[in-house]
Amino acid sequence: MSSYFEATARQRIAAIVSQFQEILPPSARWTSPHLPQLDAPVSFDDGVIIGYGKLAGQRVFAAAQEGGFMGGAVGEVHGAKLVGLMRKALIERPAALILLLESGGVRLHEANAGLIAVSEVMRALLAVRAAGIAVIVAIGGSNGCFGGIGIVARCANVVIMSETARLAMSGPEVIETASGVEEFDSTDRALVWRTTGGKHRYLLGDCQMLVDDRCSAFVAAIASAIEQVGSAAALNERGLLAEQQMLSERLARFGTLREPQQIWTALGVADVERIAMMETAEFLQLVQDLPARTLGVA
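Predicted structure:
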């Protein structure tokens, strides 16, 4: 399996982390206590795999969400497994925590339990960073990374995306339901990708690395990210203020623009119509050659 997009969570983690040892494997049968009460199906791993192994010779902790089970949505057990992995990381101090995220956010079937689970994941992730352990997020699955897990992703040191990946707070269907199809047509795939897709997120600085849709490309990027973060993983006041400044400048510069292509033009891209058709390498070269460097792009 070479395509990250087409791979399952288990195929991804097997391709990215060598000598992977799963914690709470399927035989443990940790499933949701809420779904059976709604006559809904359960999964033997509640849609997330956690464990540890090696990447580029270094010991890492890793988790992978399975988009094929309820879109990777987070319920009580799903969230507890992620939190448990992060707390274990605080004790054993691996070189990095790697999160292969694919989720629509909170599992609505589990209501408050799901919401609390996501908030606990955020808190645990920040504790990992505060301990000086690098947190690397990879996004490239068909369900994207939305809702509370979208926020979790942006709490990491480094976000790695492919062109086909999507990242946002609210998913296209949520926006359409809340604001109407005139505001956002979730069936317009071109609109969805140019608004939430990897290239747009890279231009805005929401992801720090853009890679081809290959598991090997994600492996190389994660290894590079771990090396780049080094001992600077901890989140501090200076970093928070810099992030706030970047977001304020972005809002002031692009807040009145309605279309992503207008933002690309403002960034100095001459032919915005070509961006969607560009290969990753060509796109990255275009960004490198922009007359004024993009806000937030490393």
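Summary: The mean pLDDT is 93.
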